């Protein structure tokens, strides 16, 4: 594994995946300092999920792609993109912002069986349709680490998103998502069926409110 020493660290209440874009509004002084350092030296920073004050063990490096707005008081609107996953080795508070020594994951690609790929794509498209979202077939074409693309819009909790991030191999991540979809889609279908029956003057007594 490659190592980063003193990687600037940006704890957030979310999970960032490799190649995922994330807009950020920078207003705290410590993160103004972090952003200024990364822009000046053209280096990434680390996004790590924080939950109840505890940092996750695995995060993603992020690089600033664009500064959208600069405000007179020093605030910034930026867009970053996730790059590589890493494991935390040591965290320091020597500057206004945290830094960390990390090991970047260097994992040889594992081929994804076509049947797994087709199955998870079909499930994901079904979920998007049920949610009333636009289905874009090009989303699934010629992409590395399909799992990270799908997991961005898969109805996962933050804890589940973190679990996906920490799974090493692509086939194992895809299997995780398949199992998740197998559980989630029937529940979404049940709720949608309930809504349709209400819209067509169905009988409320047959569908208790807690099922909505």
UniProtKB/TrEMBL annotation:
Q: Which GO terms describe its biological process?
A: proteolysis
UniProtKB keywords: Hydrolase, Protease
Q: Output the PANTHER family linked to this UniProt entry.
A: ATP-DEPENDENT PROTEASE LA (LON) DOMAIN PROTEIN
Domain spans labelled Lon N-terminal: 7-185
This protein's superkingdom?
Bacteria
Under SMART domains, the record lists: LON
Tell me the leader sequence span.
none
Q: What is the name attached to this protein's record?
A: ATP-dependent protease
Question: What is an example of a GO molecular function annotated in this UniProt entry?
Answer: peptidase activity
């Amino acid at each position: 594994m490659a190592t980063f020493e003193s990687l600037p660290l940006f704890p957030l209440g979310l999970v960032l995946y490799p190649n995922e874009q994330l807009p950020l509004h920078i207003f705290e002084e410590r993160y103004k300092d972090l952003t200024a350092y990364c822009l000046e030296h053209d280096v990434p920073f680390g996004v790590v999920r924080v939950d109840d004050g505890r940092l996750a063990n695995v995060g993603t490096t992020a690089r600033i792609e664009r500064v959208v707005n600069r405000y007179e008081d020093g605030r910034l609107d930026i867009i970053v993109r996730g790059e590589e996953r890493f494991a935390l080795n040591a965290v320091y508070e020597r500057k206004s912002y945290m830094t960390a020594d990390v090991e970047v994951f260097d994992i040889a690609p594992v081929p994804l069986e076509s049947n797994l790929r087709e199955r998870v794509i079909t499930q994901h498209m079904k979920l998007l349709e049920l949610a009333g979202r636009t289905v874009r077939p090009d989303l699934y074409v010629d992409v590395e680490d399909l799992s990270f693309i799908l997991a961005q819009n898969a109805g996962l909790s933050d804890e589940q998103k973190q679990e996906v991030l920490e799974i090493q191999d692509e086939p194992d991540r895809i299997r995780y998502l398949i199992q998740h979809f197998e559980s989630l889609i029937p529940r979404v279908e049940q709720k949608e069926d309930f809504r349709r029956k209400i819209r067509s003057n169905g009988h409320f007594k047959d569908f208790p409110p807690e099922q909505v």
